[in-house]
């Protein structure tokens, strides 16, 4: 099979190292800084994600540790995320466009799905440049929308904390990495070596 790709193709198909390394740390190095160039690269990865009809129904509020936007975001975190997220180098509020402006018409039935793709692209791009990410929903959505004057056609959907995972005794505190097996997540499939 001749494949054309912009990525290096291994001889034996393998999971990309960034995907293997991805986890959701619950402790970040509080002194780790993130540069404008790194943030721009992460945001560009989200900007370049695919979307239904190229609708690009996403927007981001970006707060870097120590700046005024970060302080405005942090005040609306729930107790569970307030224990770890403020130490991240940046917190990004992820917005989905859900309505056509000045109407009650749905903008795109795929807008939240598309936002998820954009955030996933941002997460993997961050990992590729040495920055860990934790996506979360433990915050007051309505308060964040009011804080940043988010119009009603946009939904404050989730947040992502970006930074360097804190290591204590050689381990990283985070959400469990156990996953269901490939067989468990595959609803139906005919393998190439099975009769069709």
From TrEMBL:
Q: Which family does it belong to?
A: Belongs to the nitroreductase family.
Classification via InterPro entries: Nitroreductase (IPR029479), Nitroreductase-like (IPR000415)
Coiled coil stretches, renumbered: none
Q: Does the keyword Coiled coil apply?
A: no
Gene3D superfamilies from the UniProt entry: NADH Oxidase
Domain (Nitroreductase): residue spans on this chain: 20-80
Q: Which GO terms describe its molecular function?
A: oxidoreductase activity
What SUPFAM superfamilies has UniProt attached to this entry?
FMN-dependent nitroreductase-like (SSF55469)
Q: What is this protein called?
A: Nitroreductase
Q: Name one Pfam family in it.
A: Nitroreductase
Q: Which UniProt keywords apply?
A: Oxidoreductase
PANTHER family attached to this UniProt entry: NAD(P)H NITROREDUCTASE YDGI-RELATED, NADH DEHYDROGENASE_NAD(P)H NITROREDUCTASE XCC3605-RELATED
């Amino acid at each position: 099979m001749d494949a054309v790709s912009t990525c290096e193709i291994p001889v034996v198909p393998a999971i990309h190292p960034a995907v293997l390394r991805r986890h959701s740390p619950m402790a970040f190095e509080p002194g780790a800084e993130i540069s404008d160039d790194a943030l721009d690269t992460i945001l560009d990865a989200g900007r370049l994600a695919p979307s239904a009809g190229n609708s690009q129904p996403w927007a981001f509020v970006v707060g870097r540790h120590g700046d005024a936007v970060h302080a405005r975001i942090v005040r609306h975190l729930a107790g569970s995320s307030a224990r770890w997220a403020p130490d991240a180098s940046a917190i990004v509020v992820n917005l989905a466009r859900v309505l056509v402006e000045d109407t009650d018409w749905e903008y795109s039935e795929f807008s939240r799905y598309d936002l998820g793709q954009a955030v996933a692209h941002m997460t993997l791009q961050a990992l590729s440049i040495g920055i860990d990410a934790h996506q979360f929903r433990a915050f007051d959505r309505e308060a964040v929308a009011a804080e940043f004057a988010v119009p009603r056609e946009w939904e404050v959907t989730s947040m992502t904390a970006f930074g360097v995972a804190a290591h204590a005794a050689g381990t990283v505190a985070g959400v469990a990495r156990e996953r269901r097996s490939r067989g468990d997540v595959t609803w139906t499939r005919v393998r190439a070596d099975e009769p069709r």
